[in-house]
Amino acid sequence: MSGLRARQKADRHRRIIEAAAALFRDTGYEAAKIETIAAQAEVSVGTIYNYYQNKGDILGAIVSMEVNEVLNAGRGVVANPPANVGDALDTLLGIYIEHSLHYLSKEMWRQAMAISTQLPDSPFGQAYTALDRALTEQIRALFVRLQAIGLVRRDIDGQALGELMFNNMNMMFIEFVKRDEARIAELRAAIRRQNRILVAAIAV
Amino acid sequence: MSGLRARQKADRHRRIIEAAAALFRDTGYEAAKIETIAAQAEVSVGTIYNYYQNKGDILGAIVSMEVNEVLNAGRGVVANPPANVGDALDTLLGIYIEHSLHYLSKEMWRQAMAISTQLPDSPFGQAYTALDRALTEQIRALFVRLQAIGLVRRDIDGQALGELMFNNMNMMFIEFVKRDEARIAELRAAIRRQNRILVAAIAV
DNA sequence: TTCTAAAATTGAGTCAATTCCGTTTTTATG
DNA sequence: CATAAAAACGGAATTGACTCAATTTTAGAA
Predict the structure, then answer these.
(1) What angle, 0 to 180 degrees and rounded to 10, lies between the N-to-C axes of helices A184-202 and A158-178?
(2) CB of A127 within 8 Å of any CB in chain B?
């Protein structure tokens, strides 16, 4: 069961994603018709629904790639953080934020976020939740690292802290993508200001 | 211009909201067809769209009522908070959370949240953002109150703290409504645990 | 009371996502 | 090879939100 059929399958997957990504970027998610994606990918509408449960899942596949890149970039910071709690946090969260608009437009993010709350049990909904958890975990890992180095107090509840910080950043990011005119620099400054309270509380 | 016409208008508004609320509750938001809402409210489909820009705005009107009640209930706590930072926070956020499922089901919340990110510029999208801001402001007001009483340090950045705490609670609430089996008690406990870090940082 | 312009209502029509099922392609088997 | 079962495909049909041009209702002037 791993000959021609599997190859065609992978190829069609790729073609659908490529067609969709291009269209979402160029015309926006809403404006991109399944029919157009199908034509571009040289498959039928029915086939697209054979590969993805719904339009949101196509976007989901694209979002997952993006977030996984972000997670990867974050690993570098966790392994080798700046020698200062505030800077370490700013660097990690900065990577998340700066990377975030690389492949995805704000409109695509809005749609992705909306779908993930609307259909939490769809394949994408579950994947999105898993990605959030992975990001939270990475922030927690940074604290563990900083505790090991001796920059963060040992008696801090790393789990709760990671959640608190991720949740705040995430909510700020949601507000950010909701306003087209919002700028990354302002977002980062606002998060830095909020985190100052936490940094003061946890730094040795 | 405030005779029969105004009365009929108010009456139709009410009928539409009542019909929609009942249907959303009973069959769920997705399953509730505009046609059915129209029939129940004894108006035509077109009339509904004369009163509300889209299906989401109908839900929006219901959500706004709910959140305004919550804000109202919160005012009491701010005016007269428990004499302990942790308890004061727990009481205020507790009111938000306990109230939240009074009129709205989890599915309705999911839809409302999704729509507010999907269409941030629709009437409901803007109203939802305003409600979030009002809640954040109320939490900030509680800190100001606690500072006045002498329970919270004067040098704390109240604005940043209010945002941090609201954002965290809100994100936790989003995750809560995404899982049908999640329980209120667990949600409150998790938030309490997260807030402990903040309380330690800000208490006198 | 009658008439007219403005405001509101109506429901058939449009549009795009999703479903459905008959047809075609691929795989496994003798 | 031939062939039957399984998997995947295609595209017409369905569905439900939303629009719009025609019609009805209301307010208020004559």
Answers:
(1) 160
(2) no
The 10s digit of each residue's pLDDT in B90-104 is 999 999 999 999 989
Q: Is B203 helix (H, G, I), strand (E, B) or coil?
A: strand
pLDDT of residue B3: 74
Strand partners, B203: B152
Indicate whether A2 pLDDT > 70. no
Q: Identify whether the C-beta of residue B154 lies closer than 8 Å to the C-beta of residue B147.
A: yes
**Contact in structure between A112 and A180 (CB atoms under 8 Å):** no
Are both A37 and A62 inside the same structural domain? no
- Best of A109, A194, A198 to disrupt the B interface by mutation (most B CBs within 10 Å)? A194
Enter the ipTM: 0.93
pLDDT over 70 at B2, yes or no: no
Q: Fill in the amino acid letter for B156.
A: I
- Whether residues B3 and B74 fall in one domain: no
pLDDT tens-digit readout, A46-95: 999 999 999 999 999 999 999 999 999 999 999 999 999 999 999 999 99
Q: Minimal CA–CA distance to A145: which of A203, A65, A80, A100? A: A80
**Which nucleotides in chain C lie less than 7 Å from some protein C-beta?**
7-13, 16-21, 26-28
Domain assignment of residue A24, given as a range: 1-51
Number of domains in chain A: 2
For the four alpha carbons of A172, A177, A180 and A184, in that order, the dihedral sign comes to positive
Give B202's contacts in chain A (Cβ within 8 Å): 197
| Tokens (6 digits) for A167 | 């949740």
* Of the candidates B164, B190, B173, B82, the residue with the CA atom closest to the CA atom of residue A201: B164
Hey, what are A7's tokens? 């190859």
